[in-house]
Amino acid sequence: MTAYDERASLGGPPARAKPGAGGELTATAERVHRSVEEVIEGKPEVVRLALTVLLAEGHLLIEDVPGVGKTMLAKALARSIDCSVRRIQFTPDLLPSDITGVSIFDQQQRDFEFKPGAIFSQIVIGDEINRASPKTQSALLESMEERQVTMDGHTYELPEPFMVVATQNPVEMEGTYPLPEAQRDRFMARVSIGYPSPAAELEMLDVHGGASPLDDLQPVAHAHEIVKLIDTVRTVHAADTVRRYTVDLVSATRSHPELRLGASPRATLHLLRAAKAAAALQGREYTLPDDVQALAVPVLAHRLLPTAQAQLNRRTAEQIVLEILQRVPVPDPSAPPWRTPGRRAPGVRGL
Fold first, then answer.
1. Residues in the chain with pLDDT < 70?
2. Residue 149 in contact with residue 156, Cβ under 8 Å?
3. What are the E-state strand segments in the chain?
4. Within 10 A of 72 (CB to CB), how many other CB atoms are there?
5. Helices then strands (H, E): number in the chain?
6. How far apart are the C-alpha atoms of 161 and 229, rounded to whole Å?
7. Rounded-to-integer distance, Cα 268 and Cα 168, Å
8. The predicted structure's pLDDT at residue 282
9. Nearest partner of 215 among 34, 324, 108, 76, judged by Cα
10. pTM for the complete prediction?
Protein backbone atom coordinates (compact mmCIF):
# COMPACT_ATOMS: atom_id res chain seq x y z
CA MET A 1 0.00 0.00 0.00
CA THR A 2 1.37 3.40 -0.98
CA ALA A 3 1.58 6.48 1.18
CA TYR A 4 -1.40 7.93 -0.64
CA ASP A 5 -3.47 4.85 0.14
CA GLU A 6 -2.79 5.52 3.82
CA ARG A 7 -3.42 9.26 3.77
CA ALA A 8 -6.37 9.62 1.42
CA SER A 9 -9.87 8.88 2.68
CA LEU A 10 -10.83 6.10 0.34
CA GLY A 11 -12.97 4.04 2.67
CA GLY A 12 -10.72 1.04 3.23
CA PRO A 13 -7.97 -0.87 1.46
CA PRO A 14 -7.69 -1.04 -2.33
CA ALA A 15 -10.34 -3.15 -4.02
CA ARG A 16 -9.26 -6.64 -5.00
CA ALA A 17 -10.34 -8.78 -7.88
CA LYS A 18 -13.53 -10.71 -7.61
CA PRO A 19 -13.70 -14.41 -8.46
CA GLY A 20 -14.28 -15.33 -12.07
CA ALA A 21 -12.78 -13.40 -14.97
CA GLY A 22 -10.88 -11.10 -12.61
CA GLY A 23 -9.19 -14.07 -10.95
CA GLU A 24 -8.10 -15.36 -14.34
CA LEU A 25 -6.50 -12.03 -15.19
CA THR A 26 -4.73 -11.97 -11.84
CA ALA A 27 -3.32 -15.44 -12.40
CA THR A 28 -2.14 -14.50 -15.89
CA ALA A 29 -0.15 -11.49 -14.70
CA GLU A 30 1.43 -13.44 -11.86
CA ARG A 31 2.39 -16.38 -14.09
CA VAL A 32 4.18 -14.14 -16.58
CA HIS A 33 6.00 -12.31 -13.80
CA ARG A 34 7.20 -15.52 -12.15
CA SER A 35 8.22 -17.03 -15.47
CA VAL A 36 10.48 -14.12 -16.41
CA GLU A 37 12.02 -14.07 -12.92
CA GLU A 38 13.11 -17.69 -13.42
CA VAL A 39 15.56 -16.39 -16.01
CA ILE A 40 16.42 -12.90 -14.75
CA GLU A 41 17.89 -13.38 -11.29
CA GLY A 42 17.60 -10.69 -8.63
CA LYS A 43 15.99 -7.95 -10.77
CA PRO A 44 12.29 -7.91 -9.80
CA GLU A 45 11.93 -4.17 -10.46
CA VAL A 46 13.19 -4.62 -14.04
CA VAL A 47 10.76 -7.49 -14.66
CA ARG A 48 7.91 -5.44 -13.19
CA LEU A 49 8.69 -2.50 -15.50
CA ALA A 50 8.78 -4.78 -18.56
CA LEU A 51 5.37 -6.21 -17.65
CA THR A 52 4.03 -2.70 -16.99
CA VAL A 53 5.10 -1.54 -20.45
CA LEU A 54 3.51 -4.61 -22.05
CA LEU A 55 0.15 -3.98 -20.37
CA ALA A 56 0.33 -0.26 -21.18
CA GLU A 57 0.67 -1.02 -24.93
CA GLY A 58 4.15 0.44 -25.05
CA HIS A 59 7.60 -0.53 -26.25
CA LEU A 60 10.65 -1.15 -24.07
CA LEU A 61 14.24 -0.04 -24.62
CA ILE A 62 16.85 -1.96 -22.62
CA GLU A 63 20.18 -0.12 -22.49
CA ASP A 64 23.27 -1.43 -20.74
CA VAL A 65 26.76 -2.77 -21.25
CA PRO A 66 27.19 -6.14 -23.00
CA GLY A 67 26.68 -9.36 -21.07
CA VAL A 68 24.23 -8.29 -18.34
CA GLY A 69 21.19 -10.09 -19.79
CA LYS A 70 19.48 -7.52 -22.04
CA THR A 71 18.56 -10.02 -24.74
CA MET A 72 17.83 -12.67 -22.10
CA LEU A 73 15.16 -10.42 -20.56
CA ALA A 74 13.57 -9.78 -23.95
CA LYS A 75 13.57 -13.48 -24.83
CA ALA A 76 12.21 -14.52 -21.43
CA LEU A 77 9.28 -12.12 -21.75
CA ALA A 78 8.59 -13.29 -25.30
CA ARG A 79 8.77 -17.00 -24.46
CA SER A 80 6.48 -16.59 -21.45
CA ILE A 81 3.61 -15.65 -23.78
CA ASP A 82 2.17 -18.00 -26.40
CA CYS A 83 2.36 -15.61 -29.34
CA SER A 84 4.38 -15.00 -32.49
CA VAL A 85 7.94 -13.85 -31.79
CA ARG A 86 10.60 -12.64 -34.21
CA ARG A 87 14.14 -11.54 -33.47
CA ILE A 88 15.97 -8.97 -35.56
CA GLN A 89 19.73 -8.67 -35.25
CA PHE A 90 20.48 -5.07 -36.15
CA THR A 91 23.72 -4.66 -38.11
CA PRO A 92 25.12 -1.82 -40.26
CA ASP A 93 24.12 -3.63 -43.47
CA LEU A 94 20.51 -4.31 -42.39
CA LEU A 95 17.99 -2.81 -44.84
CA PRO A 96 14.59 -1.28 -44.02
CA SER A 97 12.91 -3.92 -46.20
CA ASP A 98 14.39 -6.63 -43.96
CA ILE A 99 12.19 -5.23 -41.20
CA THR A 100 8.98 -4.14 -42.92
CA GLY A 101 8.90 -6.54 -45.88
CA VAL A 102 9.18 -6.24 -49.62
CA SER A 103 6.95 -6.52 -52.70
CA ILE A 104 8.07 -9.22 -55.14
CA PHE A 105 6.73 -9.57 -58.67
CA ASP A 106 4.89 -12.88 -59.14
CA GLN A 107 5.29 -13.92 -62.77
CA GLN A 108 2.39 -16.37 -62.60
CA GLN A 109 -0.08 -13.89 -61.14
CA ARG A 110 1.40 -10.99 -63.11
CA ASP A 111 1.26 -8.84 -60.02
CA PHE A 112 3.33 -7.79 -57.05
CA GLU A 113 3.04 -9.92 -53.90
CA PHE A 114 3.90 -8.51 -50.49
CA LYS A 115 6.25 -10.60 -48.38
CA PRO A 116 5.91 -9.52 -44.73
CA GLY A 117 9.07 -8.74 -42.82
CA ALA A 118 10.07 -9.55 -39.27
CA ILE A 119 7.99 -6.70 -37.86
CA PHE A 120 4.82 -8.72 -38.47
CA SER A 121 4.95 -10.47 -35.11
CA GLN A 122 3.29 -9.87 -31.78
CA ILE A 123 6.58 -9.48 -29.91
CA VAL A 124 9.57 -8.20 -31.86
CA ILE A 125 13.02 -8.44 -30.28
CA GLY A 126 15.39 -5.86 -31.74
CA ASP A 127 18.89 -6.87 -30.67
CA GLU A 128 21.47 -4.07 -30.57
CA ILE A 129 19.18 -1.64 -32.33
CA ASN A 130 21.73 1.15 -32.35
CA ARG A 131 24.18 -0.80 -34.52
CA ALA A 132 21.99 -0.20 -37.58
CA SER A 133 22.03 2.97 -39.63
CA PRO A 134 19.47 5.72 -38.92
CA LYS A 135 17.75 4.87 -42.22
CA THR A 136 17.09 1.33 -41.02
CA GLN A 137 16.06 2.47 -37.56
CA SER A 138 13.46 4.76 -39.12
CA ALA A 139 11.72 1.72 -40.61
CA LEU A 140 10.29 1.07 -37.14
CA LEU A 141 8.72 4.50 -36.69
CA GLU A 142 5.33 3.85 -38.29
CA SER A 143 5.08 0.34 -36.86
CA MET A 144 5.73 1.41 -33.28
CA GLU A 145 3.41 4.40 -33.29
CA GLU A 146 0.51 3.39 -35.57
CA ARG A 147 0.89 -0.40 -35.37
CA GLN A 148 0.76 -0.72 -39.11
CA VAL A 149 3.07 -0.89 -42.14
CA THR A 150 2.49 1.07 -45.35
CA MET A 151 4.12 -0.42 -48.44
CA ASP A 152 3.49 0.53 -52.08
CA GLY A 153 0.30 2.38 -51.20
CA HIS A 154 -1.15 -0.48 -49.15
CA THR A 155 -1.53 -0.47 -45.36
CA TYR A 156 -1.06 -3.70 -43.42
CA GLU A 157 -2.22 -3.94 -39.81
CA LEU A 158 0.06 -5.50 -37.22
CA PRO A 159 -1.21 -8.23 -34.85
CA GLU A 160 -2.32 -7.68 -31.25
CA PRO A 161 -0.73 -7.49 -28.81
CA PHE A 162 2.25 -5.79 -30.45
CA MET A 163 5.40 -4.86 -28.55
CA VAL A 164 8.95 -4.03 -29.56
CA VAL A 165 11.60 -4.95 -27.00
CA ALA A 166 14.89 -3.45 -28.19
CA THR A 167 18.34 -3.67 -26.67
CA GLN A 168 21.18 -1.24 -27.20
CA ASN A 169 24.72 -0.68 -26.00
CA PRO A 170 25.86 2.70 -24.66
CA VAL A 171 26.74 5.11 -27.44
CA GLU A 172 30.33 5.38 -26.14
CA MET A 173 30.99 1.85 -27.38
CA GLU A 174 32.39 1.17 -30.83
CA GLY A 175 30.10 0.45 -33.76
CA THR A 176 27.02 2.17 -32.35
CA TYR A 177 24.83 4.93 -33.76
CA PRO A 178 22.84 7.24 -31.47
CA LEU A 179 19.12 6.63 -31.77
CA PRO A 180 17.29 9.58 -33.37
CA GLU A 181 15.04 11.58 -31.07
CA ALA A 182 11.95 10.42 -32.97
CA GLN A 183 12.95 6.80 -32.39
CA ARG A 184 13.62 7.21 -28.67
CA ASP A 185 10.34 9.03 -28.20
CA ARG A 186 8.40 5.99 -29.41
CA PHE A 187 9.76 3.81 -26.62
CA MET A 188 7.51 4.08 -23.59
CA ALA A 189 10.31 3.37 -21.12
CA ARG A 190 14.01 2.73 -20.92
CA VAL A 191 15.54 0.42 -18.35
CA SER A 192 19.07 -0.57 -17.39
CA ILE A 193 19.53 -4.01 -15.89
CA GLY A 194 22.85 -3.37 -14.19
CA TYR A 195 25.28 -5.88 -12.76
CA PRO A 196 23.84 -8.56 -10.46
CA SER A 197 24.64 -8.75 -6.77
CA PRO A 198 27.33 -11.27 -5.75
CA ALA A 199 24.64 -13.59 -4.34
CA ALA A 200 22.57 -13.42 -7.53
CA GLU A 201 25.65 -13.95 -9.68
CA LEU A 202 26.62 -17.01 -7.62
CA GLU A 203 23.12 -18.42 -8.05
CA MET A 204 23.37 -17.69 -11.76
CA LEU A 205 26.42 -19.97 -11.97
CA ASP A 206 24.36 -22.82 -10.53
CA VAL A 207 21.26 -22.21 -12.67
CA HIS A 208 22.89 -21.15 -15.94
CA GLY A 209 26.08 -23.16 -15.62
CA GLY A 210 24.80 -26.38 -17.20
CA ALA A 211 22.19 -25.11 -19.67
CA SER A 212 20.29 -21.97 -20.48
CA PRO A 213 17.04 -21.63 -18.47
CA LEU A 214 15.39 -20.38 -21.67
CA ASP A 215 15.52 -23.94 -22.99
CA ASP A 216 13.02 -25.10 -20.36
CA LEU A 217 10.87 -21.95 -20.36
CA GLN A 218 7.34 -22.68 -21.55
CA PRO A 219 4.54 -20.20 -22.37
CA VAL A 220 2.41 -19.43 -19.31
CA ALA A 221 -0.09 -17.10 -20.98
CA HIS A 222 -1.85 -16.83 -24.32
CA ALA A 223 -1.92 -13.74 -26.51
CA HIS A 224 -5.67 -13.32 -26.07
CA GLU A 225 -5.17 -13.25 -22.29
CA ILE A 226 -2.68 -10.41 -22.65
CA VAL A 227 -5.19 -8.54 -24.84
CA LYS A 228 -7.76 -8.89 -22.03
CA LEU A 229 -5.25 -7.54 -19.53
CA ILE A 230 -4.58 -4.56 -21.80
CA ASP A 231 -8.30 -3.87 -22.11
CA THR A 232 -8.57 -4.00 -18.33
CA VAL A 233 -5.75 -1.49 -17.87
CA ARG A 234 -7.58 0.94 -20.15
CA THR A 235 -10.48 1.04 -17.68
CA VAL A 236 -8.30 2.15 -14.75
CA HIS A 237 -9.49 5.54 -13.52
CA ALA A 238 -7.21 8.59 -13.51
CA ALA A 239 -8.60 11.53 -11.52
CA ASP A 240 -8.32 15.09 -12.82
CA THR A 241 -5.69 15.85 -10.19
CA VAL A 242 -3.50 12.94 -11.34
CA ARG A 243 -3.82 13.92 -14.99
CA ARG A 244 -2.96 17.53 -14.15
CA TYR A 245 0.04 16.38 -12.10
CA THR A 246 1.26 14.33 -15.06
CA VAL A 247 0.99 17.32 -17.37
CA ASP A 248 2.80 19.56 -14.86
CA LEU A 249 5.73 17.12 -14.63
CA VAL A 250 6.14 16.88 -18.39
CA SER A 251 5.70 20.63 -18.88
CA ALA A 252 8.46 21.28 -16.35
CA THR A 253 10.95 19.45 -18.59
CA ARG A 254 10.25 21.87 -21.44
CA SER A 255 11.20 24.95 -19.43
CA HIS A 256 14.09 23.52 -17.40
CA PRO A 257 17.26 25.60 -17.95
CA GLU A 258 19.48 22.50 -18.16
CA LEU A 259 17.46 20.83 -20.93
CA ARG A 260 17.58 21.83 -24.59
CA LEU A 261 14.85 19.32 -25.45
CA GLY A 262 11.98 18.50 -23.12
CA ALA A 263 9.47 15.66 -23.19
CA SER A 264 6.81 15.54 -25.91
CA PRO A 265 3.02 15.26 -25.57
CA ARG A 266 3.49 11.59 -26.46
CA ALA A 267 5.54 11.29 -23.28
CA THR A 268 2.57 12.61 -21.29
CA LEU A 269 0.33 9.91 -22.76
CA HIS A 270 2.92 7.22 -22.13
CA LEU A 271 3.45 8.31 -18.53
CA LEU A 272 -0.26 8.17 -17.73
CA ARG A 273 -0.74 4.82 -19.49
CA ALA A 274 2.19 3.34 -17.60
CA ALA A 275 0.80 4.69 -14.33
CA LYS A 276 -2.54 3.00 -15.06
CA ALA A 277 -0.79 -0.31 -15.71
CA ALA A 278 1.23 0.02 -12.51
CA ALA A 279 -1.95 0.74 -10.55
CA ALA A 280 -3.66 -2.32 -12.02
CA LEU A 281 -0.69 -4.52 -11.11
CA GLN A 282 -1.01 -3.27 -7.53
CA GLY A 283 -4.70 -4.18 -7.43
CA ARG A 284 -6.17 -0.69 -7.73
CA GLU A 285 -8.82 0.57 -10.14
CA TYR A 286 -7.46 4.12 -9.82
CA THR A 287 -4.09 5.80 -10.29
CA LEU A 288 -2.21 7.80 -7.67
CA PRO A 289 0.54 10.42 -7.90
CA ASP A 290 2.82 7.72 -6.47
CA ASP A 291 2.36 5.70 -9.66
CA VAL A 292 3.35 8.68 -11.80
CA GLN A 293 6.37 9.45 -9.63
CA ALA A 294 7.63 5.87 -9.67
CA LEU A 295 7.62 5.78 -13.49
CA ALA A 296 8.76 9.32 -14.26
CA VAL A 297 12.46 8.47 -14.63
CA PRO A 298 12.16 5.38 -16.89
CA VAL A 299 9.46 7.04 -19.02
CA LEU A 300 10.90 10.56 -19.37
CA ALA A 301 14.68 10.46 -18.99
CA HIS A 302 15.58 8.87 -22.34
CA ARG A 303 13.59 11.53 -24.23
CA LEU A 304 15.45 14.50 -22.73
CA LEU A 305 18.56 16.22 -24.08
CA PRO A 306 20.68 18.08 -21.50
CA THR A 307 22.41 21.29 -22.54
CA ALA A 308 26.14 21.39 -23.19
CA GLN A 309 26.71 23.15 -19.87
CA ALA A 310 24.74 20.47 -18.02
CA GLN A 311 26.85 17.79 -19.66
CA LEU A 312 30.02 19.61 -18.61
CA ASN A 313 28.66 19.64 -15.07
CA ARG A 314 28.04 15.87 -15.40
CA ARG A 315 24.31 16.32 -14.95
CA THR A 316 22.31 13.40 -16.32
CA ALA A 317 18.73 13.41 -17.54
CA GLU A 318 17.81 11.07 -14.68
CA GLN A 319 19.11 13.55 -12.11
CA ILE A 320 17.14 16.37 -13.72
CA VAL A 321 13.91 14.34 -13.67
CA LEU A 322 14.42 13.58 -9.98
CA GLU A 323 14.93 17.29 -9.34
CA ILE A 324 11.70 18.09 -11.18
CA LEU A 325 9.86 15.52 -9.06
CA GLN A 326 11.04 17.35 -5.96
CA ARG A 327 10.04 20.75 -7.33
CA VAL A 328 6.60 20.15 -8.88
CA PRO A 329 3.87 20.27 -6.19
CA VAL A 330 2.19 16.94 -5.48
CA PRO A 331 -1.64 16.93 -5.35
CA ASP A 332 -3.15 17.21 -1.90
CA PRO A 333 -4.10 13.73 -0.58
CA SER A 334 -7.16 15.26 1.10
CA ALA A 335 -8.55 16.26 -2.30
CA PRO A 336 -11.61 14.45 -3.75
CA PRO A 337 -11.16 10.65 -3.91
CA TRP A 338 -8.83 9.32 -6.57
CA ARG A 339 -11.33 6.66 -7.55
CA THR A 340 -14.94 7.13 -8.57
CA PRO A 341 -17.66 5.43 -6.52
CA GLY A 342 -19.05 2.21 -7.87
CA ARG A 343 -16.15 1.30 -10.14
CA ARG A 344 -15.09 -2.30 -10.04
CA ALA A 345 -11.53 -3.43 -9.56
CA PRO A 346 -9.56 -4.20 -12.71
CA GLY A 347 -9.02 -7.80 -11.67
CA VAL A 348 -5.25 -7.70 -11.22
CA ARG A 349 -3.75 -7.75 -7.76
CA GLY A 350 -0.26 -6.79 -6.76
CA LEU A 351 2.67 -8.88 -7.88
1. 1-26, 172, 208-210, 333-351
2. yes
3. 60-63, 81-82, 85-89, 101-106, 111-116, 123-127, 148-151, 154-157, 163-168, 189-191, 221-222, 259-261, 305-306
4. 21
5. 15, 13
6. 10
7. 24
8. 84
9. 76
10. 0.85
